[in-house]
């Protein structure tokens, strides 16, 4: 199994220049350079909403399957890093799952 990662390096000794390496490698000074990783693999999530009332007042239980992935475009990758860098895959999945369930409830309630 190949692990695809985004590596963010830089920001040491007051320098703010950061580099993003996707699927490659880079030299990092031990104890000097801050290196953080974020997984770019596909995450399978199972959103579930129980007893959600529709606009007509009918209670529903809905389950689904969602495939989520952090896209590899610079702007989107930067946004994902701002939100998720330093978090575990489990924490990222939980955040995305809660967002999906919220949107699912909103759709069902319309």
From TrEMBL:
<dbReference type="GO" id="GO:0045661">
    <property type="term" value="P:regulation of myoblast differentiation"/>
</dbReference>
<comment type="similarity">
    <text>Belongs to the band 7/mec-2 family. Flotillin subfamily.</text>
</comment>
<dbReference type="GO" id="GO:0002020">
    <property type="term" value="F:protease binding"/>
</dbReference>
<protein>
    <recommendedName>
        <fullName>Flotillin</fullName>
    </recommendedName>
</protein>
<dbReference type="GO" id="GO:0072659">
    <property type="term" value="P:protein localization to plasma membrane"/>
</dbReference>
<dbReference type="InterPro" id="IPR027705">
    <property type="entry name" value="Flotillin_fam"/>
</dbReference>
<dbReference type="GO" id="GO:0031410">
    <property type="term" value="C:cytoplasmic vesicle"/>
</dbReference>
<dbReference type="InterPro" id="IPR036013">
    <property type="entry name" value="Band_7/SPFH_dom_sf"/>
</dbReference>
<dbReference type="GO" id="GO:0016600">
    <property type="term" value="C:flotillin complex"/>
</dbReference>
